[in-house]
């Protein structure tokens, strides 16, 4: 485990935060794909992100996701036992199951625990019900929160995502070495975490459940950060992924390999 170096969604008033559009303090132009300008946009009302039109038109088959075979309490209990450090993390305040988008545009199913002192993004195998690994982000290390549309450079061959996400920064992406950015195995050295709705958020049966809703997570986290560190900016901006060809991630994501699923009799 690495460490850093049902309800309706509660309303949040971002006017009381330090809201900046296109804030250059962390990331700036260097963190955006070459030839692409940072895209300014208004913060969506109540922290709502853009929905994926493909999943809206054709929601996934709920029963194929093994996360549905466990109760939220079972998920929390398993992850708390394996990943939570009572001293550094504190008590678990809320838990989510979301999609992490890594710096190579791969989707991964993650249990996300919002704790008193940290956010834990946990890889949990819902088929074997075993903890795999976790990333800990101490709230004291957060330097910016952002919500916006996920964007690629114009030269990529990957299909545009056309949906929003939330990003937590604990460092400046512009200071990340090029060799790290282009290393698919260097996620632990990327100073931000990008989270989006879990596919089950698009199913009618789960649409009102905050557990799969990245907006609910973002609002809760923003409220906590506002109370702990009022100076941390909460911004609306495009969320770039420096992607060259994108073919590998396209195959990976279309196959749903980052999720614990029943794949026509083969479960992994």
UniProtKB/TrEMBL annotation:
<protein>
    <submittedName>
        <fullName>HSac2 domain-containing protein</fullName>
    </submittedName>
</protein>
<dbReference type="InterPro" id="IPR040242">
    <property type="entry name" value="TPRG1-like"/>
</dbReference>
<dbReference type="InterPro" id="IPR034753">
    <property type="entry name" value="hSac2"/>
</dbReference>
<dbReference type="InterPro" id="IPR022158">
    <property type="entry name" value="Inositol_phosphatase"/>
</dbReference>
<dbReference type="Pfam" id="PF12456">
    <property type="entry name" value="hSac2"/>
</dbReference>
<dbReference type="GO" id="GO:0005737">
    <property type="term" value="C:cytoplasm"/>
</dbReference>
<comment type="similarity">
    <text>Belongs to the TPRG1 family.</text>
</comment>
